[in-house]
């Protein structure tokens, strides 16, 4: 009886791409699953047929030979059939499906990893440390020593986890693979080896200091350089300063997250600073000079124009924060807040009443506003 065309078996067109062939086989594998075909006694043989087709078409060389010679490419006239060749359809079903399982799901389950044993060394975890700095330190930068609780390599066993430096042996349960396989119907499922926890090796004589882990818990002091211009949310990475690796594996990294505290005088906006300066009604009316603080600890003299109102802003160039990765320094913006006097003496009240009596168009904004109000009321009446 003539064999069925491999492309037809997988439900794809001739000349289909590798992705189309794999997709077609996945669809067939689902269709032929025994749970979906309880009344189909031919499910296993049909799956073998699909598997045989896939084994040929997924291989570029075999596919090229099949496209040219058909089934004859794998029969005696074309070099003979190999024992257990996929084209013969006589391989063990569970073994065949196990291979397919690895091919389809190896990326998610860890695969076979080339068939070799897993390495016992494992990279250490990354660590996070939150650091608060004030705005002055963010302006100048600083060097700070921090204490980090972490895992470090065991000194007694030099990180090997084994007493007296004795080398670990391959796990007898998984033969050093780190995984074991269990047959479930047509499927072969891989799980982490329960004996070695996936390391693939066992330590017969574990170190008494670290119990075979190759690392111990300890507080470490580290000197950290905080660059000028850091902001809240900035992250500093210290390579290899995280948790020590398991059984001699490489250490993880330490990430320091910066939080800049709020300041009592300045408010930060990127590289710029805002500073609200209260001024008396007299100074705002007559004008004058005031001294304002700067983030570097200095002072700057600022001239207030006469007739200044609350909310007026003035800029001091280059008096802001430095840029973290180069670039020009920010500016400092001063916002005036004209203060109404309180706790007036009798003489002060008398003078203000006198001023109010002789006031002549000294409040243009007030006059403009109430002029608009009068127009609004007149319009409502009409």
From TrEMBL:
CXXCXGXG motif repeats lie at residues 154-161, 171-178, 193-200, 207-214. GO terms for biological process: DNA replication; protein refolding; response to heat. Zn(2+) 2 binds at residues 171, 174, 193, 196. GO terms for molecular function: ATP binding; heat shock protein binding; unfolded protein binding; zinc ion binding. Residues 24-36 have a biased composition (Basic and acidic residues). Residues 141-219 form the CR-type domain. GO terms for cellular component: cytoplasm. Its cofactor is Zn(2+). Residues 24-44 are annotated as: Disordered. CDD domains: DnaJ (cd06257), DnaJ_C (cd10747), DnaJ_zf (cd10719). A zinc finger (CR-type) spans 141-219. Zn(2+) 1 binds at residues 154, 157, 207, 210. Binds 2 Zn(2+) ions per monomer. Keywords: Chaperone, Cytoplasm, DNA replication, Metal-binding, Repeat, Stress response, Zinc, Zinc-finger. Belongs to the DnaJ family. Participates actively in the response to hyperosmotic and heat shock by preventing the aggregation of stress-denatured proteins and by disaggregating proteins, also in an autonomous, DnaK-independent fashion. Unfolded proteins bind initially to DnaJ; upon interaction with the DnaJ-bound protein, DnaK hydrolyzes its bound ATP, resulting in the formation of a stable complex. GrpE releases ADP from DnaK; ATP binding to DnaK triggers the release of the substrate protein, thus completing the reaction cycle. NCBIfam families: DnaJ_bact (TIGR02349), PRK10767.1 (NF008035). The J domain is necessary and sufficient to stimulate DnaK ATPase activity. Zinc center 1 plays an important role in the autonomous, DnaK-independent chaperone activity of DnaJ. Zinc center 2 is essential for interaction with DnaK and for DnaJ activity. This is Chaperone protein DnaJ. It comes from Falsihalocynthiibacter arcticus. The lineage of its organism: Bacteria, Pseudomonadati, Pseudomonadota, Alphaproteobacteria, Rhodobacterales.
